Structures
1.
Amino acid sequence: DAKTTQPPSMDCAEGRAANLPCNHSTISGNEYVYWYRQIHSQGPQYIIHGLKNNETNEMASLIITEDRKSSTLILPHATLRDTAVYYCIVSPSGQNFVFGPGTRLSVLP
Amino acid sequence: GAGVSQSPSNKVTEKGKDVELRCDPISGHTALYWYRQSLGQGLEFLIYFQGNSAPDKSGLPSDRFSAERTGGSVSTLTIQRTQQEDSAVYLCASSLGRGTSGRWYEQFFGPGTRLTVL
């Protein structure tokens, strides 16, 4: 299964774009990239997923490099409520998702 | 519609006692997952149910842990002879499983059960 690497923490000013990177250099051709986040004391929340093309929804944008070895989650206008741990996951060959340590994003006023 | 619910929200028990944690998934979701999260740690996969298939129990940490999913809906996670290291938040999630394209549908998580073993 492809593993992911994320920075342990990042800061972002409120109102600015938050760009969260993820490396998944061993990803295989049929594996999707998923992003979830976990706000303190809550269960994780799905954000977005993608395979090859860039994706956008009401929460975020996902930019996947052409070689698919890395991706970036973009929160275009971060708010204080976006402070959370963000998990980048590459879909496994089995059923179980591996939620690594993620990136702790702190949005600062 | 209703999301994933879990009960109890908090459980305090004494070492050596058995506990049962309940999960009510979203109606129509065929897949159900159990995870646990120790304080300040990431999620640890425990077990996965998909329809009528045999569950994936590869994440269960010991034979003290077991889970059932009755009628393809409600699930119960049972921990026998609890130990202090079992203290954690136990999270349940449900989803539509895996699509024909190979994509895994998003998981919807419940609020969790905080288990404290004294």
Note: The longest strand of chain A covers residues 84-90.
2.
Amino acid sequence: QKEVEQNSGPLSVPEGAIASLNCTYSDRGSQSFFWYRQYSGKSPELIMSIYSNGDKEDGRFTAQLNKASQYVSLLIRDSQPSDSATYLCAVNLSGQNFVFGPGTRLSVLP
Amino acid sequence: ETGVTQTPRHLVMGMTNKKSLKCEQHLGHNAMYWYKQSAKKPLELMFVYSLEERVENNSVPSRFSPECPNSSHLFLHLHTLQPEDSALYLCASSQDIVAVPYEQYFGPGTRLTVT
């Protein structure tokens, strides 16, 4: 069974710190990986996608992928209170086979 | 705001009612999806359509019936629902399912309450 696991949190970090969110997945055939941000009462918003091993940076966000260890992480630098949300990790085995993790709730304290 | 719209945004229905949820994407994508998001559970993929053909049906009860008349529109027809079907129903679209990029973009969702 394809699974994606995340620590449910809440993960609390002070404003300006680095928030580190982790995700592990069970299916070695997984091809692509995504991070979504979901504010309470809103729909998921895509913030990062990563397809190959290594780091991918976009502004304050860095996604890291290690296929050998089957984990993907998201770093948020200079965390802001507006970053407080639930972060969903999604793994794509092939085309239509998307599996989402349960999400990690992040709280950035002013 | 995303290029995926959903109506209605909120729906309250009795167990004997029939209603439909509508999704429209303005992104020129070929694939569309229905997800269910219940409290304290991960997003559950319900249906996938590619070029108006259903390619995935994840053991969803028959009281949920999807329809995709064209690549821009997706419906979810609801009948004789149960209270446990109360959830946020999300529509998403992606460029394709057979090649990258696979990124999915979500609509705002329909909050459904079954009484």
Note: Residues 3 and 27 of chain B are 6 Å apart (CA to CA).
3.
Amino acid sequence: EAEVAQSPRYKITEKSQAVAFWCDPISGHATLYWYRQILGQGPELLVQFQDESVVDDSQLPKDRFSAERLKGVDSTLKIQPAELGDSAMYLCASRPNRGLPGELFFGEGSRLTVL
Amino acid sequence: AQRVTQPEKLLSVFKGAPVELKCNYSYSGSPELFWYVQYSRQRLQLLLRHISRESIKGFTADLNKGETSFHLKKPFAQEEDSAMYYCALSSTSGTYKYIFGTGTRLKVLA
């Protein structure tokens, strides 16, 4: 069964360092989402792609976060420089582009700890 | 503002007891509503969605547009229902932005 792949699963870094997360959605899924989930809270949307285009990045802290999906397939989320408050689980999700809203398929997430 | 509210962080019930996980939403328009579940050491996955009107693993959810609620119910809880439950909504046009609640941890006690 096809699944959304994310790496790394765990990342520990010191503040002011750069970190990057990778996501490979299910093949054929045109829409890709990056969410941040702080402990005890629900997933919060950071950025949404339709193919290679950003359709919503209103909640992305653009001074330090960037995201790209150059060929409309896999995606990278980068943080530079990392801050203590960035410690969280970073979730990637994808969905096929079939009109009505449907199921989001999630990856296992990348847990970031900033020291 | 678009928002999903789950008032309970933790809900503990005994096996065989009825369960109701509350979800209220704020949205200008008619969103699509979902319940997602995360079992221990597993990824977040869809449990059910309003448009399907299905019963999944004995769970049902009724959309009350007047009260803007989408509570999740199960008549007899099982130990394997213990998990984290998230209510979510999506727009039904445009970019299909999904908004999640803060989640409710359900513990079913033996």
Note: Residues 64 and 80 of chain A are 5 Å apart (CA to CA).
